[in-house]
Each structure stands twice: as structure tokens, then as C-alpha cells.
Amino acid sequence: MSVLVTGLVLFLAVHSLRIVAPGFRAQMMASNGERAWLLTYTGVSLVGLVLIVWGYGLARMDPSPVYAPPLSLRHLALVLLLPVFPLLIAAYVPSRICMTVGHPMLLATVLWGLAHLMANGTLADVALFGGFAVWAAIDWISAANQPGKGKVRQPVGWTGDAIAVLGGLAIYGVFVAGLHQWLIGVSPV
What we know:
The chain has ten helices and no strands. α6 (84-90) runs antiparallel to α8. The model has no long low-confidence stretch (mean pLDDT 90). 76% of the residues lie in helices and 0% in strands. By secondary structure, the chain is mainly alpha-helical. It folds into two domains: 1-62; 64-189. The chain starts with a helix and ends in a 5-residue tail after the last helix.
């Protein structure tokens, strides 16, 4: 469990700098250059991500139950996960979805975390999925309260929305059909 927690702390801490220390990023880029900042940020993020994946795998070998979700919540979780991939894609294409939500990747992360908490109840699940859901919700609120930040490109037509929705639902279908089982070792259905 300590590997998972260390990874979460590293990954979420570096991604929380905008929330807790907004001037730090600008100061680091000014003193060391943007490239050095991005390399450091990326390096710490990758180390954190590797520790999260490794730590979660270790924790799953010796699970510590916190609660036992009913089977019906698994089905509800699948429904809650439907918009996750469309929101992730909408974060990168000019779309009305992005303009409406403001930060679709953060909303996707909240939904992903909540859905997984509905279907899983070990201590590692609470740490991983709960940690990401809480962090994303705080970051989403923080980003929404920053004037002038998060401006998105004005979409032309509905192409971006169609790409996000159709592409996201296709990826969701692939995950449910077997990719989740292959990557994670657990079938979502």
C-alpha cells in the first residue's frame, strides 16, 4: 500500500501546484526555463504513475476490504462511465462539450473515480479512485474560479462534438468488450 500512496502523493502533488502554489510554476519557468520545468514535471508525473500502477497491483494481491458494494452498483457504474471517454476526447478538440463543461478531463476523472468506487471497496480502491476523484473535483472548482483561465477554442459546427461522442463511445465499447480485462485483469461486466 505504501508504494501506491507514494505514487499518488507524487502524481497528485505535482498536478496540484496550480491549486496550492499558483506562482511557483511561473517562478520555476522563469528561473530554469520552460523546457526544464516541463521535463521535471513530466519526470515526477511518470514516476508517480509507475508507482501508482505498481502499488495498486501489489495492493490487489492482498486486499483490505473497506466496504462491499452490491452487485447492482457495478451496473450503475457502467452507466456512469459512459461519458468518461467522450469527455476525455472533448478536452482535446474544439467542441461545445468543452465550452460547456470548461474542463472535461477533470469531470471525466471525477466520474471515473466515483464509478470505480461504486464497484470496488478495498482500501487500495478507496485510495486510488477516491484520491483521483477528490483531487479532480478540487482542481475543477479551482480552475472554474480563475478568471480568464481555461478559455477554449470556439468550435465550428458540431464536428468536434461528434468526434468526442462517437470516438469516446467507441473506446468505451472496446474497454467493456475486453480491453479492461486485458489491461487490468478484471472484466467490467
